[in-house]
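> forwarded from #structure-qc
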C-alpha cells in the first residue's frame, strides 16, 4: 500500500508507522532534502536536521529507547497553505531502558509536497528528555 499524499492523512500514516516501530518506512515519507527542526531543543540535542539521511540517522535507534503505545490526543489543523498543517498531539509509552513512563506533548508544523514531508518543525517538550532513558539522540547532557 502506498502512503497517502494529503498532509493530514500522510501525518496520520506516519504516526502509525512510529507505533509499528517501522522507522525505515517512516523515513521513506521524507523528501530527499526535507528539513526537521527542533526550536526548543535543549543544549546537546540537534536543533536542525538537513535531508532524509540526517533524519534517518537521528531516528534510527528511537524504538530502542522509546516504546510508543499511542497518541491519545491528536488534533490536526489545516492552515491557509494547503501543503501545511499544524498538529497538536500527545505521545504515550514507556522508556525502554528504565521501563518508566513516557508522556510527551508536541506541537508540530508540517509541510508536505508531492507526497513527502519537506519541513517538520517539532515543538516538543524539552523537560521530558531529562528522564533517564530518554536520551535516544545522543545528547551531551
Amino acid at each position: 500500500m502506498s502512503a497517502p499524499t494529503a498532509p493530514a492523512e500522510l501525518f496520520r500514516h506516519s504516526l502509525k508507522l512510529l507505533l509499528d516501530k517501522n522507522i525505515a518506512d517512516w523515513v521513506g515519507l521524507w523528501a530527499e532534502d526535507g528539513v526537521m527542526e527542533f526550536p526548543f531543543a535543549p543544549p546537546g540535542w540537534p536543533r536542525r536536521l538537513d535531508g532524509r539521511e540526517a533524519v534517518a540517522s537521528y531516528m534510527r535507534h528511537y524504538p530502542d529507547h522509546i516504546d510508543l503505545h499511542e497518541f491519545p490526543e491528536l488534533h490536526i489543523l489545516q492552515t491557509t497553505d494547503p501543503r501545511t498543517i499544524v498538529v497538536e498531539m500527545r505521545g504515550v509509552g514507556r522508556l525502554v531502558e528504565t521501563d518508566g513512563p513516557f508522556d510527551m506533548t508536541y506541537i508540530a508544523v508540517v509541510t508536505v509536497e508531492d507526497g513527502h514531508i519537506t519541513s517538520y518543525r517539532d515543538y516538543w517538550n524539552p523537560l521530558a528528555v531529562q528522564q533517564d532513558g530518554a536520551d535516544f539522540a545522543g545528547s551531551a547532557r
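QC bot note: The first strand starts at residue 30 and ends at 37. The mean pLDDT is 90.
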